[in-house]
From TrEMBL:
Keywords: Iron, Iron-sulfur, Metal-binding. GO terms for biological process: intracellular iron ion homeostasis. It comes from the Eukaryota. It comes from Ambrosia artemisiifolia (Common ragweed). GO terms for cellular component: cytosol; nucleus. CDD domains: GRX_PICOT_like, TRX_PICOT. Pfam families: Glutaredoxin, Thioredoxin. Residues 1-105 form the Thioredoxin domain. This is Thioredoxin domain-containing protein. GO terms for molecular function: iron-sulfur cluster binding; metal ion binding. Belongs to the glutaredoxin family. CGFS subfamily.
């Protein structure tokens, strides 16, 4: 059975109703991981012809995304007998295959549930791309971080910078334009030829140092990678989307490069800079100034689709909910109301999708990153560092984040001191469910909590936001039979 694109919630509901196994892939056109996982998803659909394999473009179908609590892509929902039985978030091909097999059954009777499509039908290029993606944070958000080049030798960094800037338009690909070695590279070459631009290429299969180094340098895990005037535009899915939307030609023009007509139309300034255009992005000085003013118009600024009362996509809605949960005052800008801002901000911040969250003028990320930061406590930490939230407010939220909350050295599975280990064992023996925070992971919390609770050592156990005590008190409560009650 082939993968079917779902266009409405009603259509999806009708398919789910019949009770057959249903696999749904929520994806986004800008997400590199979605592209590669979609290849695996397609091959799995051929191995399991009795199941429904459906694809939902998450941002275009906010009603469906919201119904299934989708906040990041790629995201998979598995249904059977009309009910959701499992989910998977991120680029994990083996896990995807195993979950499908578990719900539908093995491919052939008597065979194990791990489908052969991962090793054969999917092909090595797809697997390699997905495995590369699985090694990173699975956010696959499309942002490049210059600081990601940490860990690369100065000599390699200099070589990569020289290669990236060796042509105004530079494509790092598998193979060469005459003989591409993967479908994604071949598609990128076709698009550049269709755009009628001159471009240089580098075969990353010919040099493993460049191949591995460039992933870290640009914080982009797959190939091809397209650069314009030294700036990463993205991989194959972004190149395709920009080409089909007419944005790729504009991006080249904004950077002052492209075909002969574009090149001749540029006007050089006194320092060789295009007149009225910033060196770093190629955007006009007027637009750059406007974008910076918008970004800095509030300490916490969210560029989203719609507004907080009526978000126009599930990802925007999720970030609004997170900011409200954090009790943060924030201002928003509806990028659907101004195409100049919508397109310009992508280039200015080198971030290809929306929403975009800024704190004190600094880009934090999109919905997947904001969600992950909230889950890990990193968002609150940043808010404190930026002066948006006080340390006391953060500590109050932390100690009340679970009914029973333990601040310890290490984690319940791997305590880093004997006292923490004893308290963990005591709580487990009493059957008490509890949350924990590793104070070794955050010096600000470690020192701040001592003052906040007037308790100088760790572990510290809290119940409904109130301090119970440390190791000796907990053990005494347990021995008296009072801990559980």
């Amino acid at each position: 059975m082939t993968v079917k694109d779902v266009k409405s919630k009603q259509e999806l509901d009708n398919i789910v109703k019949d009770g057959s196994p249903v696999m749904v892939h929520f994806w986004a056109s800008w997400c590199e991981a979605s592209k590669h996982m979609d290849q695996v998803f397609n091959h799995l659909s051929g191995d399991f012809p009795l199941a429904h394999f459906l694809r939902v473009e998450a941002e275009e179908q906010p009603e469906i995304s919201e119904a299934y609590s989708v906040s990041a892509v790629p995201y998979f929902v598995f249904l059977k007998d009309g009910k959701t039985v499992d989910t998977l978030e991120g680029a994990y091909p083996s896990e995807l295959a195993n979950k499908v097999s578990k719900i539908v059954g093995s491919i052939h009777a008597g065979e194990p549930a791990a489908p052969a499509s991962l090793g054969m039908a999917a092909g090595p290029s797809v697997l390699e791309a997905v495995q590369d993606l699985a090694k990173i944070d699975n956010s696959a958000s499309g942002k490049t971080h210059p600081q990601a080049s940490a860990g690369i030798s100065d000599s390699l960094k200099a070589r990569l910078e020289k290669l990236i800037r060796s042509h105004p338009i530079m494509l790092f690909m598998k193979g060469n334009p005459e003989q591409p070695q993967c479908g994604f590279s071949e598609k990128a070459v076709e698009i550049l030829k269709a755009e009628n631009v001159k471009f240089g290429t580098f075969d990353i299969l010919s040099d493993n140092e460049v191949r591995e180094g460039l992933k870290k340098f640009s914080n982009w895990p797959t190939y091809p990678q397209l650069y314009c005037n030294g700036e990463l535009l993205g991989g194959s899915d972004i190149i395709i989307a920009m080409h089909e939307g007419g944005e790729l030609k504009q991006a080249f023009a904004d950077h002052g490069v492209g075909n002969d007509d574009v090149s001749k139309s540029t006007v050089a300034g006194p320092n060789g800079q295009q007149a009225g255009v910033t060196n770093s992005t190629g955007l006009s000085l007027a637009l750059t100034s406007r974008l910076e003013n918008l970004i800095n118009s509030a300490p916490v600024m969210l560029f989203m689709k719609g507004n907080p009362d009526e978000p126009r996509c599930g990802f925007s809605r999720k970030v609004v909910e997170i900011l409200k949960e954090e009790k943060v005052d924030f201002k928003t800008f509806d990028i659907l109301s101004d195409d100049e801002v919508r397109q310009g901000l992508k280039v200015h911040s080198n971030w290809s999708s929306y929403p975009q969250l800024y704190i004190k003028g600094e880009l934090i990320g999109g919905s997947d990153i904001v969600l992950e930061m909230q889950k890990s406590g990193e968002l609150e930490k940043v808010l404190v560092e930026k002066g948006i939230m006080s340390l006391e407010d953060r500590l109050k939220k932390l100690v009340s984040s679970k009914p029973v909350m333990l601040f310890m050295k290490g984690t319940p599975d791997a305590p880093r001191c004997g006292f923490s280990s004893k308290v963990v064992n005591a709580l487990k023996e009493e059957g008490v469910k509890f949350g924990s925070f590793d104070i070794l992971s955050d010096e600000e919390v470690r020192q701040g909590l001592k003052t906040f609770s007037n308790w100088p050592t760790f572990p510290q156990l809290y119940y409904k936001g109130e301090l119970i005590g440390g190791c000796d008190i907990i053990l005494e409560l347990k021995s008296n039979g009072e801990l559980a009650s």
